[in-house]
Amino acid sequence: MIDLKALRDDPARFKDGARKKNYDVDIDRILELDTLKRDLMTRAEALRAQQNKLAKESGPKIGQLMGKLKKAEPDERAAIEAEVESLKAAPNKLKNEIQVLNASIDDIAPELDELLMQVPLPPDPDVPVGASADDNVELKRWAPDDWDWNQSFEQNKGFAPKTHIELCKDLGLVDFPRAVKLAGARSYALTGDGMRLHQAILRYALDFMADKHGFAPMSVPVLVREEAMTGTGFFPAGREQAYHVEETTRGGGHDLYLTGTGEVGLMGLHQNEILDEDQLPLKYVTVSTCFRREAGAAGKDTAGLYRIHQFDKVEQVVICRADEQESRDWHKKMLGYVQELLQSLALPHRLLQCCTADLGVKNADMIDVECWMPGRGDTSPSLSSASSVPSEGGASSPPTSNASPTGAFGETHSASRLYDFQCRRLNMRARKGGEGAKGETTFCHSLNNTVAASPRLMIPILEMHQNPDGSVTVPEVLRGYMGGSESIG
RNA sequence: GGAGAGGUGGCAGAGCGGUUGAAUGCGCCGGAUUCGAAAUCCGGUAUGGCGGUUUCCGUCAUCGGGGGUUCGAAUCCCCCCCUCUCCGCCA
Predict the structure, then answer these.
(1) Angstrom distance, A438 CA to B34 C1'
(2) Which domain does A288 fall in, by range?
(3) What percentage of residues in chain A have a pLDDT greater than 90?
(4) For the segment 374-433 of chain A, residues whose CB is within 7 A of strand B
(5) pLDDT of A421-439, one tens digit each?
(6) Is residue A19 part of a domain?
(7) Number of structural domains in chain A
(8) In 3-state terms, chain A is what percent helix, strand and coil (to 5)?
């Protein structure tokens, strides 16, 4: 939610922001409704003030008269009743006028609220303006010393890579067919070392943030109320992405939603709270199962572990003081942690500055991290087919052509800077001394970033660390979480 | 799942149709007293919206949330949410 006052003061800024983000919101209509609503409110309140004043004067009199009426002789009753009616007349008239005004307010309020929810947070001025994700800008790349970006996987490593799908099949890490039988498309079952690797990644990432960077480890609900989805900014725009759990037997108001990220649970924790400014920033890390309907992604990345309905994610969230510089500093730090983590896993990756069109409603700035995935991208004739090792099963590639994929970047992380957009919706404020203290409250700033999403992160780990013999070397930092195993297969 | 009790200011806790935004106590802040402290006494002590002559003033709303009855609602009615107790079930 944006600040309505800010919108009144500088509508051009919000119009410009919406345009850059490709959002179509009628801001002039908002201003029109807002003016109208305030005018109606002012008038209704003035009448209400009169009514309150009258009630204080005539109220006790009516009370006395009503008492009198009970004990009154029949011949006195008519006079008393008439007096009561005359006392009621003025406030009654006011009441009717107020009701008319309130009805008008009720008429326009829903439209205003709905429109207001749709106004995106303007992107920061330093975010590149773009029309689509194609206009995102690469900021930097990192790769281990033995990786040359100008060469293919095969040239770098001396053998043609298998895709993670082939590796999973050959090494018995994932059972796709049975999972699909049980749960439908985009499902998977992790088996054996696949499950171990998955858990190792999650636990390593959690410990990395908690022990090394002082984030408080949390476990939070993944089944939440609509309020939490709206508050965190995932509703109404992303409603079709979320699984809706109907509680038919309990009746209305009980329905719940499965969260698509731990961010919802972490941010929702402090909904409607006044935090102690001195206790900020709050730094949380959680590991949670994430549920996504992937509506609108039909036909995209249908095979493998890339785009799935259910996965686990270690997520970091920071709630800090409402200070732009502090927000910007945290954004950098949170990205830094991820780079450090990916370096420790020896995964080549790049930082991608998302352009305005790719930001979504709630972000002022968003930087994605993409890992190199040798098994993605177009398949092209193998550059040196002679040296390629045939897969043991032989089912991974057509026997007649030695095609191997070119490799491509695949998104593994996304770091968002939201300023007070989310905290405004969540009604999360801060002041010195917290809840009981005095003084001004301000909406906090919030930021979030992936630490590790698995199984997706298993893709670059498996593909980058595969060996000519079909085995996969386990990155050193994960070995302690896999009973010391140095390799899979 | 069944039965019952209850949600009031930072906390405890009254009020259960009429100058009640809310008694009283605790806490907190300021002052007096004191060499200082304790004790005591005095005063203050919610949030949000709107407007203004914008360190302040006016006004409206808020007693779990929403709706209703009424000239008037913390108080009566309806729906919802939450908490507690007992029973049942259960990892």
Answers:
(1) 30
(2) 133-488
(3) 62
(4) 429
(5) 999 999 888 887 666 666 6
(6) no
(7) 2
(8) 45, 20, 35
Q: Are strands A282-291 and A310-320 parallel, antiparallel or unpaired?
A: antiparallel
- Note if A411 is an active site residue: yes
Distance from C-alpha of A226 to C-alpha of A237, rounded to nearest angstrom: 13
Cα separation of A238 and A488, whole Å?
39
Cα distance between residue A141 and residue A157, in whole Å: 19
Looking at residue A221, which CATH number applies to its domain? 3.30.930.10
CB atoms < 10 A from the CB of A385, how many? Answer: 13
Regarding an ipTM greater than 0.90, the answer is: no
CA–CA dist A449, A414 (Å, integer): 6
Residue A102 and residue A172 in one domain: no
pLDDT in tens, A362-414: 999 999 999 999 999 876 554 443 333 333 333 333 333 456 788 999 999 99
User: Distance between CA atoms of A412 and A335, rounded to whole angstroms?
Assistant: 12
* A427/A319 same-domain check: yes
DSSP class per residue in A411-424: EEEEEEE-TTHHHH
Question: Are residues A384 and A292 located together in one domain of the fold?
Answer: yes
Decide: CB of A436 under 7 A of nucleic strand B.
yes
Q: Which two tokens stand for residue A28?
A: 């002039």
A65-84 as b/e, with b when 16 or more CB fall inside 10 Å? beeeeeeeeeeeeeebeeeb
Tokens of A27: 């801001």
Output b/e per residue, A477-489; b: 16+ Cβ within 10 A.
bbbebbeebeebb
Chain B nucleotides reached by a protein CB under 7 Å: 1, 10, 17-19, 27, 45-51, 59-61, 71-72, 79-81
Higher-confidence residue of A79 and A388: namely: A79
> CA–CA separation, A291 vs A472, rounded Å?
29
E-only strand ranges, A292-439 = 310-320, 349-353, 365-373, 379-381, 403-405, 408-417, 429-431
pLDDT computed for residue A253 by the predictor: 61
**Residue with the two structure tokens 């509703």:** A235
